[in-house]
Amino acid sequence: MSTARTHIIKRKDGWAVKKQGSSRASKVYRNQGDAIQGARKMNSTSEIVVHKRDGSIRKWIKKK
Q1: Contact 57, 16 (CB under 8 A)
Q2: What is the pTM of this model?
Q3: Which residues have a Cβ under 8 Å from the Cβ of 1 and sit 6 or more positions away?
Q4: What is the 8-class DSSP label of residue 62?
Q5: What is the largest CA-CA distance in the chain?
Q6: pLDDT digits (tens, 9 = 90+) for 23-62
């Protein structure tokens, strides 16, 4: 069984919340903190992978 993951990535217009495997972002936020909170509200069962501006992984929030 694969693990569902949601990624927080930097875009020109802000920080995007994107489910793994999806071609489009679910929502774009002005800052990274708001994007993390939004991802937690959208789906509490998936892991959240927070990326730095350069695309490398900053933090991995495991599901509960």
Answers
A1: no
A2: 0.88
A3: none
A4: -
A5: 34
A6: 999 999 999 999 999 999 988 778 999 999 999 999 999 8
